Structure formats: C-alpha cells, structure tokens
Amino acid sequence: MEKRFLLLGILLLLLGYPFLRPIVEDVWQKQPDATAFPKYKEIRVEQDQIYQGDLLLVNKNDPIHSEAVLSDVIHLSSHKYLVEGYRLQDNSIQLSENAAEAFNEMVHAASIDNVKHFMIKSGYRSLGKPGKLAEEKGHAHDALPDCFHEHHLGTALDVTSTQMKIDQSPEGKWLQENAWKYGFILRYPKEKVTITGVPYNPMHYRFVGLPHSAIMQERQLSLEEYVNTLREAKEVSGTINGGDYKIYYYPVATSIMIQVPTNGKYVLSGDNQGGVIVTEFL
Ligand SMILES: [Zn+2]
C-alpha cells in the first residue's frame, strides 16, 4: 500500500512540475521587491525653508530674511585655489563657496577663449552692516534700501574687467553669452528694467545654479518671471548636459510633506515668497 502511495506521489509531482514551474519563476521575477526600496521618500518642509536656497527672489517687494544667508560664505583671498585666473578688488571680498567654485570654473573656460581680465569687485555683504558698496560710483542698484539688496545672499557678485568698463569689455560680452552655462544670470538686464525695478547693471551676476540659469537664458526670463513661471507650471522637465531633470514647485503655508528621491540627487530652494522648488536630477 505504502509503495503505491509513494509512486502516486512521485507521479503527481512529475505531472505538477510544469504547472508549478511558472509560479516559481514568477516569484523570482518579482525580486527585488520594489516596495522594499522606494525611489521616493517623504520629507517635511517648514515655512523657514521658503527663505533659504539659491533661487530666492529678493527685490523691493520681497526683502531678504535672516535665514537666507548661506552657511558656506568664505573669504575668497584665503582660498587661493578659488581665485586662480582672476583678481579680487580687495582681500575682504566674501562669497558662497559653492558660487565661488562655479565662478572659478567659468573664468577658466573664458581663459580658453582668451578672455582673461576678470575682477570681482564685490560679493557678500553681511546683514545690518553699512555697505561699502553704497559709496561706490556707478553702482545704481545700491540706491535701493539695504534689506532689498541681493549682496546679502552670498550668491551675488559684481564682476568687472581690469582693462576697461565691463559693458565695453570682452569679459562683459563673454559673460553675457556664457555665464548661464555655469549657473549664473545677469540679474538686472537692460530689457527687464520694468520687471526687476532695478536699472541695467552689467556687473551684477547672481548664482542660481543649473538647470535654472539655462532655462532662463533659453526663454529670456528674469528671475521674477522665472519664479512666476515655476509657480504657475508646478512641474517642468528637460535635459541639461546629457542628463534629465525635473523641477517641482510646492506652495508652503505652515509646513508641508513633499516627495524627494531616496538616493538620487536633488536640490531644494525656497522662492522667498510662498513656496519651495525641488530640482531633481534623474
Ligand atoms: Zn551688485
């Protein structure tokens, strides 16, 4: 009897094998379990994050908040590797290290095009400290009240040529054509005076980072117009330097939960108005 049951068992196993096999394969195909390694995670964004980051819009309607000052502001003269290939007007000039690295890369690229006479005239200015800039001749936007001024951010700088006036120099021309490739924008262009509310200033550049500077260049947008565009669009995507990116805008009332990549690269910045912008590099 027992032998018959054993043979029957073996027969059933053999018959069942083809039916069992796909099930086994299916289980293997589901590995690894996608839910065990989520691509996105949720983070809480608080209201003070509206006032921090590289995309802050600082103008007469949106004054700078104390949270805005970047923690990586450094004295450029004590970081020799960051000031190769250009001059500083004096040793007191400070700037965000991240922006200074991008500026250094930009100046190096310009030198390959034989444009080599850049000088940083001014950079970061601490909040509440009387500005030396106000005494400088020809710096039209210093007529604005101190709290509206972009130089408090650490990502704004005035660039001149050591040879001639910047708007007549090869340096000025090169920057107007190429600064966007390195994350910089000419903050107060001639054709945007009515939007920025600030007279044309060929010296004043602002670091906003890629892909933002590239989008602004391509669509000919001022920072005011760009932030408005993001706020209305909520989501923008494209390609930069061979990689895809996505930009999301989230309004923030008091606090909000948002999704960000678990392991991928992303940058979060406030707009200094009422929301945050997440830039995801895919
Ligand atoms: Zn300036």
Characterise the protein shown here.
This protein is α+β, with helices and mostly antiparallel strands and 282 residues long. The protein folds into 2 domains: 40-55 and 214-282, Phosphorylase Kinase, domain 1, CATH 3.30.200; 68-207, Muramoyl-pentapeptide Carboxypeptidase, domain 2, CATH 3.30.1380.10. The chain has 6 helices and 13 strands. The strands form 4 sheets. The chain has a 5-stranded mixed sheet with strand order 3-5-6-8-7. A 4-stranded antiparallel sheet has the order 9-10-13-12. It is globular, with a radius of gyration of 27 Å. It binds zinc ion. Residues 151, 156, 158, 204 line the site of zinc ion. Zinc ion (ZN) is lined by residues 151, 156, 158, 204.
Largest sheet, if any?
5 strands, mixed
Query: Low-confidence runs (pLDDT<50, min 5 residues)?
Result: 11-15, 17-32, 130-138
Element-by-element helix/strand order: HEEEEHEEHEHEHHEEEEE
* β-sheet strand percentage: 15-25%
Distinct helical segment count: 6
What ions, cofactors and ligands are bound?
zinc ion
Q: What is the top-level CATH class of the largest domain?
A: Alpha Beta
Radius of gyration: 27 Å
Q: Biggest sheet: strands side by side, in what order?
A: 3-5-6-8-7
Portion in helices:
25-40%
What is the residue-averaged pLDDT? 85
